[in-house]
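Now for a sample.
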Amino acid sequence: MTDLPPSLTRRAFGRVLGAAALAGALPEIGGAMPSSDPVQPESTPDASASAPRAPSVLVETGDEICDLTAVDLAARIRRKQLSAREVMEAHLARIARVNPKINAIVTLVADRAMDDARKADEHQARGGTLGPLHGLPVAHKDLINTAGVRTTFGSPIYRNNVPSVDATLVTRVRDAGAIMLGKTNTPEFGAGSNTFNTVFGATVNPYDLHKTAGGSSGGAAAALRCGMVPIASGSDMAGSLRNPAAFNGVVGLRPSPGRVPDDDGSWSPLATMGPMARTVADVALLLSAMTGNHAPDPLALTDDPAIFRAPLERSFKGARVAWFTSMGGIPFEPEIRRVVDANRKVFSELGCVVSDDEPDFTGVDEAFPTLRQLGYSANYGAHAREHPTLVKDTIRWEIAQAEKRTGTDAGRALARQANLYLQLARFFERYDYFVAPVTQVAPFDVTTEYPTSVAGVAMRTYIDWMRSCWYFTLTACPAISVPAGFTASGLPVGIQIVGPHRGDLSVLQMAHAFERATNFGARRPSI
């Protein structure tokens, strides 16, 4: 890369964040929640009409319900200790109280969700077969098509877009019994790791309302951290699942390409959808509903989804862990290094053999941006030409960079991608896991579009500060972000556990063991 993308001053960026309000969009930070739900029941369903209850009711208040894990909630609904309606009512109440401060859920379909919860209870009362997610509220990222529910992609071009067909992921999660209550905020077309757009404004961090929630799945991560949903969908190209998970103290899995099938027929392994939740077990549960063969996706994997619903406990005695050194010399803030390195002993205490080592990342900082730029040009070039004032600067910069690329550039990038895949296959013959920070920085001010320097090192582009994530995107290895502690100022830090190709289950097992040993995700914000 040679050209620097246009940068916004703090004042100019503030105007961008406020543009949603000026355009009449709902909501800006602290704004009222919109509803795009055409279903208007005549009355609120009566919870007393639910299926017969088990004699022991373990949860009594809505706040307690919202703080339960998805695994626990699903079990209690199955045992009839809770109804789907009670669970949905509790989460809608939490949204009403907390979301105006955070702006994580940008389209709410409360009436539809309550009607679906009533139907779920009636289905259970009739003895119907229950899916693994039965009765669980879920929110989908606003990049994912939802039939009959507004899907804006964070773009003013699609401000009023209502798809007629669900994405395959949405269908699968619904068929597993989950109940959609709304859509979560994302930056425009998912570009960048600060969740803001001119349609809805910015999503802020629950641990510090002046900080970013990250992105592009920032709305999902913030909603999870605040207990507005127990599970949520996200997507990841340059770190869009992992960065916000780290910034909000939740869990985000970038699965192996093809683990969660897509609908675009693409052979590219760069972008993938995936699960987010507050615990590793909850992420595994949601993944079990998302995964499975899908003929239209040429990369779709065919493993039995049930493997992700099995217990995650296992021994790690003798497991070989490679510990990052500098990831090819990229800069990290000292606080990030301090927090992540403090966890090295956890892996040793789990029985792992930990060694300093890392793959060779030479050339990745040229190959990945080249392929990303070509993808952005193919997907959004027409929008930029037809609506130049409605497409943000960084996306137009990506497209302009793609136009400078040659066939030789593309071929070189693809060759480096193929070689890196082989390198990682050999690397994971020597090791079982690689561990590194998720992010190079702590959550930054929400009015800063992106960091322009890290530890005193200037960043050339708007995604340079995310290399600790997108270096692994190009490897096609599964990678998970798990809470790893906090900075001195109380902001969350994530640790990234990477496994061999298609080793998603093993990555989840190691992440679960780390989570159980540390329990950093239990520290909730006081919002």
In short: DSSP finds 16 helices and 17 strands in the chain. The CA atoms of residues 373 and 398 lie 5 Å apart. The radius of gyration is 22 Å. The longest strand covers residues 479-486.
